[in-house]
Design a protein that fits this description.
173 residues, mainly alpha
Length: 173
């Protein structure tokens, strides 16, 4: 039996346009997408994940912010987010499922915390929300509001890399 991670990624069988669209759903940085497209075809999933990490590590703050801009704010208006982020809505909904079962007070605190976070750092709060409750995300948001802008950008970039990895895994599932 062949290890699924050593099988050829579905990206290899897509047109360049389809692959670009799929990669953009994983990470909204145009430079990252171009870098990944330049590496096609991938010998395996392991090679694809390694390329994703390597390319992300070569990017800078503007690329990070561009990727962040493709994420809906946790706890904000879900109807508006479904329209604005239609291409990632299903994944975001699953990734943020902990926020969907939260109390109204927690959802309002997340929304308000996101506003404060955006005012402080200039981008939405980015966290790999998979497996986290709304209360856990709120606690992380509140703690990260105390960070310096440089530290927070690095942390958000690390969280984006985790999200990208999860989304790349979902391409073949």
């Amino acid at each position: 039996m062949t290890d699924a991670r050593e099988a050829k990624p579905i990206l290899n069988g897509l047109s360049r346009e389809e692959a670009a669209e799929a990669l953009t759903r994983c990470c909204g940085s145009a430079r990252w997408v171009r870098g990944m497209l330049g590496r096609l075809p991938f010998a395996s999933h392991t090679a694809m994940f390694a390329a994703a990490v390597e390319i992300w590590a070569q990017l800078g703050p503007d690329d990070y912010r561009e990727a962040f801009s493709h994420h809906p704010e946790i706890g904000s208006n879900l109807e508006e987010l479904r329209r604005k982020y239609a291409s990632t809505a299903e994944w975001s909904r699953a990734e943020q499922s902990g926020a969907l079962s939260a109390s109204e007070a927690t959802l309002h605190a997340l929304r308000d915390g996101n506003r404060a976070y955006r005012e402080r750092f200039g981008f939405s709060f980015i966290v790999c929300a998979t497996g986290k409750t709304a209360e856990e995300m709120l606690s992380l948001l509140q703690a990260r509001l105390r960070h310096s802008p440089d530290l927070e950008l690095d942390i958000a970039a690390t969280e984006q890399a985790k999200i990208t990895h999860l989304r790349l895994e979902k391409l073949d599932s």
